[in-house]
Protein: Nucleoside diphosphate kinase
Organism: Mola mola
Amino acid sequence: VEKEQTLIVVKPDGVQRRLIGQIIQRFEQRGFKLVGLKMLQVSEDLLSQHYCQLTSKPFYPRLMEYMTSGPVVVMVWEGHKVIQSSRMMVGHTNPAEAQAGTVRGDFSLHVSRNVVHASDSLEAALREIQLWFPGKELLNWDCIDQYITCE
Ligand code: DAT
Ligand code: MG
């Protein structure tokens, strides 16, 4: 059974717009397994570590402001090729270029309010999961249909 995991964050605009349920539904429907979930007001410290590769970008201050403007919902999803698949499900960083059928392509218009985060590589996923879910917060549970979705 494939144990690949990725970090998905419903950003403050997604929470404000009551999109949490629809986003979770897409990942459940696809067949992925939820192994961690929490709602929090993210600290600037955690966020600066999360976006450490972007600190020199001109949009970085606005990104920090946006991401700390309200609560977020952060999740870890597990399953076969979940990192690549969830990037496809989330869509292009800029919603104007995101395909219909993706979260960003269906729910957003502008890159500075793009509803959701998804880890972009195995290294990023490992790093981000460790950052947002330190210790032993993730659950290891058996899903009865995992022979369908994970092998
Ligand atoms: P992604 O979220 O698709 O992985 P990223 O890691 O390059 O994209 O950037 C992280 C976030 O920063 C992105 O979701 C929205 C914001 N961002 C990226 N490029 C931007 C830009 N040109 N203007 C404003 N915000 C931007
Ligand atoms: Mg990214």
About this structure: The longest strand covers residues 33-40. The two ends are 6 Å apart (CA to CA). Residues 59, 63, 93, 111-112, 114, 117, 120 surround 2'-deoxyadenosine-5'-diphosphate (ligand 1) (CB under 6 Å).
